[in-house]
Amino acid sequence: MPMIVNHGGIAISTISSSTPNILLLGGTTEATALAMLLAEARMTATLSYAGRTANPRPQPIPVRVGGFGGVDGLVDYVRSHRITHVVDATHPFAATMSAHAVEAAARTNVALAALTRPAWTPGTGDRWTQVADIAAAVAALDGPGRRIMLALGRQHVASFSAQPHHHYILRFVDAPDHPPPLPLHSLIVDRGPFTVDGDSTLMQAHRVDLVLCKNAGGPGAAAKLAAARQLGLPVLMIDRPWLPDRLLFEASEDVLRWIGHAGIDRGV
Ligand code: NAP
C-alpha cells in the first residue's frame, strides 16, 4: 500500500496505455529486490547506478552506470529511452537524485514512485539526540574528546576533521585507498551482516561512548542501535533530508502492482 499519496495534483488512473518501460534508480538492497521481481515478471526495465561502487553485484535486468547530467540529462534519458515509469529506489539520503527524479517526471509526464525503507524511530531505552544534517552533527561534537563510532558512509568522514580531538571508530566495507583524514581513529573493514552481539562486543572492545549515524532505516544496519541501547550508549542520529512529496512504497511487491495496474492520466 502506498504510504503517502501526494503527487502535485497528478491523478492516478487504472488505465495503462502502453507497455511499461521502467527506469529503476538504484544503489540499495531495495532496488536489487525490485530488480529481481521485475525480471521474474518479465518487465522491461533498466537499473541505474551512480557508479560509486567499483564492483556492483550482478543484476537480472540491464544496468546503466553513471550520473545523467542533472535534471536536463535525466529528462533527455527518459524521453530518448521512452521510459514510462521511474522508480526511485535510491538511498533515503540520496536527496539530489530523488529531487531530480521528481522534477524530471513532472517535465516528461511519466509516472514516478519511490521505494524506500521506513525510518528508524527511538524506543524505550534509546538515548537519541536527533540532528538535521552532517554539519549539525559535526557542531554537536564540540566538547571534551570522546570515542565515537562513526557509522556513516566514507564520503562524510572528512567533515569530522573539524573535530579532530575525538577518537573515531570507523567501519568500512572495503579498505580505503587513502587513510581517513582523522588524526585519531581505528578502522575496521567488514561488510557485515552485523549482529547485535557482534556490534556490542565491538563497541565494548573499542570503549565507544557515542554512536553517530544517519537514519538510514531498515533492518540491515539496525544492529548498532540495538547494541547501543543494550549498553546504554547515547546515539547522535542524523535525520533524513527533506524531499518533495512523492508516491511512496515500502514493499517492492507494491511497486510491481502499481506498475502493472496504474497508468497516469494528466488530462493530456
Ligand atoms: P545524490 O547525492 O542524491 O546524487 C548525486 C548525483 O549522483 C546525482 O545528481 C546523479 O548525478 C548521481 N546519481 C545518484 N544516484 C544515481 C543513480 N541511481 N543513477 C544514476 N545517477 C545517480 O546521491 P548519493 O547520496 O551520492 O548516492 C549515490 C548512490 O549511492 C545512489 O545510488 C544511492 O542510492 C547510493 N547510496 C547512497 C547512500 C547515502 O548515504 N547517500 C548510502 C548507500 C547507497 P546526475 O545529476 O549527473 O544525474
Summarize the structure.
This protein is an alpha/beta fold and 268 residues long. The chain contains 7 helices and 14 strands.
Please indicate the count of domains.
2
Distance between the termini: 27 Å
What ranges have pLDDT less than 50 throughout 5 or more consecutive residues? 1-16, 263-268
Please provide the count of β strands.
Answer: 14
| Oligomer state of the chains in this structure | single chain
- Tell me, rounded to a whole number, the average pLDDT: 90
Largest sheet: 6 strands, parallel
Q: What CATH architecture of the largest domain would you give?
A: 3-Layer(aba) Sandwich
| CATH hierarchy class name of the largest domain | Alpha Beta
Structural class: alpha/beta
Cofactors and ligands present? NADP nicotinamide-adenine-dinucleotide phosphate
- Radius of gyration over all CA atoms, rounded: 20 Å
Instruction: Bin the helical content.
Output: 25-40%
Provide a descriptive summary of the structure in words.
By secondary structure, the chain is an alpha/beta fold. The protein has helices at 29-40, 70-80, 95-108, 134-139, 196-205, 223-231, 252-261; strands at 11-13, 21-25, 44-49, 63-65, 85-88, 111-115, 127-131, 147-151, 167-172, 185-189, 210-214, 234-238, 248-249, 263-265. The chain has a 6-stranded parallel beta sheet with strand order 4-3-2-5-6-13, with helices on both faces. The protein has a 6-stranded parallel beta sheet with strand order 7-12-11-8-9-10. It has a two-stranded antiparallel ribbon with strand order 1-14. Helix 1 (29-40) links the parallel strand 2 and strand 3. Bound molecules: NADP nicotinamide-adenine-dinucleotide phosphate (NAP). NADP nicotinamide-adenine-dinucleotide phosphate is lined by residues 25-28, 48-50, 52, 67-70, 73-74, 90-91, 93-97, 100, 153. NADP nicotinamide-adenine-dinucleotide phosphate binds at residues 25-28, 48-50, 52, 67-70, 73-74, 90-91, 93-97, 100, 153.
